[in-house]
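Key result, reporting period 2: structure in, sequence out.
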C-alpha cells in the first residue's frame, strides 16, 4: 500500500518493448512493476527472466480475478512501439480506464486517434520520458467514464444500427 504500482497486461514477447519497465523500476525505486502475461501466446522466457532479475513482478498464469490487479494499480503502462506487437487499440488500456487507472502509453497504433492526451492518458515517445507523478484529484476521474462510454456495447450497437440503416438505403 505504500508503493506506487505500475501495471502492464499483455503478451510477454520480444516485440512488446517491455525492457523500459526496468528503467521505470530504477527511476521510481519505491514503485512496484507488475506485469501480467497473456496465456494466449507463447511467452519469451528471456523477457520474463530479464524483468524478474531487475525487480519486476511477473505473473504468467491465468489470473481468475484480473480486475483486482487493475484495481490495486496506480498506473497502467503500455510501452509497446512495434505496430505488429498488438492490436491498434489495446483492450487493456480501456480496461484500465474503466477501473479509473491513469494510462501512460507510447504513441502506439490508433490510441491517440481515439483517446485524447489528458490527465488520465499521457503519451510518450518512450516511457523513459515519464518522470513525474500525476497530480490527480477525485474529480479528474469523473471524465474517465465519459471517455470510455463510447466503447460500451449499447453505444457500439446503436452506431452499427445507424451504419447498417444508411448502407441499406444505398
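The corresponding designed sequence is given below.
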Amino acid at each position: 500500500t505504500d508503493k506506487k504500482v505500475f501495471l502492464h497486461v499483455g503478451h510477454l514477447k520480444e516485440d512488446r518493448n517491455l525492457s523500459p519497465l526496468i528503467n521505470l523500476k530504477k527511476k521510481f525505486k519505491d514503485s512496484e512493476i507488475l506485469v501480467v502475461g497473456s496465456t494466449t501466446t507463447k511467452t519469451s522466457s528471456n523477457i520474463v527472466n530479464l524483468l524478474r532479475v531487475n525487480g519486476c513482478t511477473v505473473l504468467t498464469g491465468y489470473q481468475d480475478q484480473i480486475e483486482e490487479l487493475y484495481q490495486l494499480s496506480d498506473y497502467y503502462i503500455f510501452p509497446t512501439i512495434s505496430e505488429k506487437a498488438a492490436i491498434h487499440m489495446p483492450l487493456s488500456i480501456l480496461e484500465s480506464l474503466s477501473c479509473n487507472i491513469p494510462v501512460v502509453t507510447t504513441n502506439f497504433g490508433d490510441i491517440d486517434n481515439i483517446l485524447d492526451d489528458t490527465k488520465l492518458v499521457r503519451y510518450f515517445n518512450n516511457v523513459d520520458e515519464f518522470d513525474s507523478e500525476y497530480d490527480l484529484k477525485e474529480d479528474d476521474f469523473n471524465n474517465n467514464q465519459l471517455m470510455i462510454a463510447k466503447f460500451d456495447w449499447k453505444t457500439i450497437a446503436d452506431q452499427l444500427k445507424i451504419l447498417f440503416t444508411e448502407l441499406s438505403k444505398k
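The first strand starts at residue 4 and ends at 10. The longest helix spans residues 153-168. This case is discussed further under Risks and Mitigation.
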